[in-house]
Amino acid sequence: MVRASSLENAEHVLELGPGTGAFTGEILSSLRHGASFSALEIDPELARTMSKKFPRAKVIAGCATKLGEHLETEKVPPPDAILSGLPWAVFDENLQNHILSQIQAVLRDGGVFSTFAYYGPHRLKAGQAFRRKLENCFSRVERSSVVLRNFPPAFIYTCRH
Questions:
Q1: Which residue, of 34, 52, 84, 152, has the greatest Cβ tally within 10 A?
Q2: In the chain, pLDDT over 70 holds for what percent of residues?
Q3: Mind listing the pLDDT tens digit for each residue in 111-154?
Q4: For strand 140-143 and strand 81-84, is the pairing parallel, antiparallel, or unpaired?
Q5: Domains along the chain with CATH numbers
Q6: Residues 69-83: pLDDT tens digits?
Q7: Cα–Cα distances in angstroms (integers) from residue 89 to residues 16, 25, 67, 123, 127, in the given order
Q8: Does the predicted model carry a pTM greater than 0.85?
Q9: CA 116, CA 2: separation in Å to the nearest integer?
Q10: Which contiguous run of DSSP H or E holds residue 117?
């Protein structure tokens, strides 16, 4: 997911739902010198843990439904790239729409949004609907090959703004 996001030229990168930091270390090591990084985590305890584990990161405790408000309050610049570990498949349609509209509103023109989906459920009605949402929100949506080493197998959606 980090490679698909073209972070080498990004000035500011945002991670949504870092959880325990599975992607965070890779994101930070991929950033160019001088680039900044923020993460938005809904669980306050996880946000505190992430702040300690990754002192270079600006970790914000908050919900992606209020992404724009959080970035404004914390004086975080518009991101060139947003990487998401959010569990889209468990969100209802309204929540997906709301978060995607927040992402669209804050992502810089020409920016990239990356997220993953599990192989298999993507073929179900909800998975197909999510793909269509991405295609309606972004000018270009690409899907990576399936990563079979991941359990469960998954793939990456890379979306251009």
A1: 84
A2: 96
A3: 999 998 877 766 666 788 899 999 999 999 999 888 888 778 88
A4: unpaired
A5: 3-160 (3.40.50.150)
A6: 999 999 999 999 999
A7: 15, 25, 19, 12, 7
A8: yes
A9: 11
A10: strand 112-118
**CB-side exposure of 65: number of CA atoms within 13 Å?**
9
User: Residue 133, by phi and psi: left (phi above 0), alpha (psi -120 to 50) or beta?
Assistant: alpha
13: tokens are 């990168």
Q: What's the chain's average pLDDT?
A: 91
CB 117 within 8 A of CB 144: no
The secondary structure element, H or E, covering residue 140 is strand 140-143
Structural tokens at position 86: 């959010």
Maximum Cα–Cα distance across the chain: 43
**Cα torsion at 155, 158, 99, 96 (round to 10°)?**
-40
90 to 26, 56, 87, 96: CA distances (angstroms):
25, 31, 6, 9
Q: Which two tokens stand for residue 140?
A: 């270009």
First to last CA, the chain: 17
CB 118 within 8 A of CB 154: yes
Whole-angstrom Cα distance, residue 5 to residue 72?
23
45-49 CB contacts, 8 Å cutoff, 24+ apart = 46/18, 46/19, 46/20, 49/20
